[in-house]
């Protein structure tokens, strides 16, 4: 009966949907600030918005006049005045209000051409802070949406986040492989650790611009233990764990992107290893297994994996189909199973993506090419957000 009670508690934890309270802007702890000097033009700027809870958001630029637009889902800006925002006098004008059902919009007129250098949301309990960093650019490097009307029509669909997550917004963990004293594969003076870190940082920026919160297992050339990577993701409430690699094999043996998923035949061994090597309260989000025996911990982890494994496979389908559509070179067997340590987490859909093999001349050239990386980043952003919307629809159908 005790096992049954724990499994029932687990089911309730997985299926519970977060409350949809209206998020309120807190002008006193929000601001627009200069982050440097504008020697030959407008200065770099940073917009910080503190909200009473995390929300889905998107940030982009439009022209005529040049404006930053930030859309917030489930936020109510009534009762606050743009002119009361600290730093409002740094720009020609700021406006905000409701613009369509369930969404509010903030429009910041800018003193010149800018680019969105980064955008991200840091969540707390219960507050969140959205930060948009703007860097001035020359006119030739200003890439806004074609017009304000186009911005209204062609915005990417707001991400519908999986309702089973521990946070309201979608949280993705990016795991650049290796690092520190472990450079990974090496070829032609390049290391796997450096290449995948660069790619992960570019992917983080693109995901955050679509309103996805991102946690990085490492953001510099440091070494992080394999089990600690999963722990970092779990503590951040990640609903998807994506490990990034670019391995090396003898010339001619492998080329093209490859996706690895957990080998279901390894479930028993992984559960035993996790039970021995992790703290018990770190095995499953939402359930404290401290004091339980290995058999019970293993049984509960196997139970949870019956939900996460199909979701990992669903993400792999989204990713392979979009890579094929975008002309990304794929390995002859693009999806494979493996017992990699970073795929062991039973409560989090996980995948390991070999971006290519740096032992292959073409793959190595691709990884060093900003245009190829931008195309691959686009593929991953569309895969992640498409998978998240599909997960939300599936969750609704299951509840019926």
Automatic annotation (TrEMBL):
Matching CDD domains: MurNAc-LAA
Keyword Cell inner membrane: no
Keyword Transcription regulation: no
InterPro entries with a match to the protein in the record: AMIN_dom (IPR021731), MurNAc-LAA_cat (IPR002508), N-acetylmuramoyl_amidase_3 (IPR050695)
Signal sequence coordinates: 1-19
Domain of life: Bacteria
Keywords assigned: Hydrolase, Signal
Reaction(s) this enzyme catalyzes, per UniProt: Hydrolyzes the link between N-acetylmuramoyl residues and L-amino acid residues in certain cell-wall glycopeptides
EC number: 3.5.1.28
Broad EC category: hydrolase
Limits of the MurNAc-LAA domain: 230-385
The protein's name in its UniProt record: N-acetylmuramoyl-L-alanine amidase
Origin species: Paracoccus marinaquae
């Amino acid at each position: 009966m005790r096992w049954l009670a724990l499994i029932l508690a687990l089911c309730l934890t997985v299926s519970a949907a977060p409350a949809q309270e209206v998020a309120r802007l807190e002008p006193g702890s929000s601001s627009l600030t200069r982050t440097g000097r504008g020697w030959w033009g407008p200065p770099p700027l940073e917009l910080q918005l503190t909200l009473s809870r995390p929300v889905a958001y998107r940030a982009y630029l439009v022209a005529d006049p040049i404006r930053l637009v930030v859309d917030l889902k489930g936020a109510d800006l009534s009762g606050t005045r743009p002119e009361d925002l600290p730093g409002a006098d740094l720009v020609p004008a700021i406006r905000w209000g409701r613009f369509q059902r369930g969404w509010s919009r903030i429009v910041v007129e800018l003193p010149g051409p800018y680019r969105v250098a980064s955008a991200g949301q840091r969540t707390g309990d219960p507050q969140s802070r959205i930060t948009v960093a703007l860097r001035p650019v020359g006119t030739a490097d200003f890439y806004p949406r074609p017009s304000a009307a186009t911005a209204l029509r062609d915005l990417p669909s707001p991400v519908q986040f999986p309702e089973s997550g521990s946070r309201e917004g979608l949280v993705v963990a990016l795991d650049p492989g290796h690092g520190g004293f472990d450079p990974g594969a090496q070829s032609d003076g390049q290391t796997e650790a450096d290449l995948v870190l660069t790619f992960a940082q570019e992917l983080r920026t693109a995901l955050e611009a679509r309103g996805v919160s991102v946690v990085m297992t490492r953001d510099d050339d440091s070494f992080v233990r394999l089990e600690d990577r999963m722990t970092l993701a779990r503590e951040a409430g990640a609903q998807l764990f994506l490990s990034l690699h670019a391995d090396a094999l003898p010339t001619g043996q492998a080329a093209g992107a490859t996706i690895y998923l957990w080998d279901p035949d390894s479930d028993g061994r992984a559960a035993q290893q996790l039970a021995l090597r992790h703290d018990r309260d770190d095995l499953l989000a939402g359930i404290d297994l401290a004091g339980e025996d290995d058999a019970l911990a293993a049984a509960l982890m196997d139970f949870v994996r019956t939900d996460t494994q199909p979701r990992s496979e669903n993400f792999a389908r989204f990713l392979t189909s979009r890579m094929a559509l975008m002309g990304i070179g794929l390995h002859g067997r693009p999806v494979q199973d493996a017992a990699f340590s970073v795929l062991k987490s039973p409560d989090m859909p996980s995948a390991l993506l070999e971006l290519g093999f740096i032992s292959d001349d073409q793959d190595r050239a691709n990884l060093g090419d900003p245009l190829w990386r931008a195309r691959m980043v686009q593929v991953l952003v569309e895969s992640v957000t498409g998978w998240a919307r599909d997960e939300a629809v599936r969750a609704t159908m299951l509840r019926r």
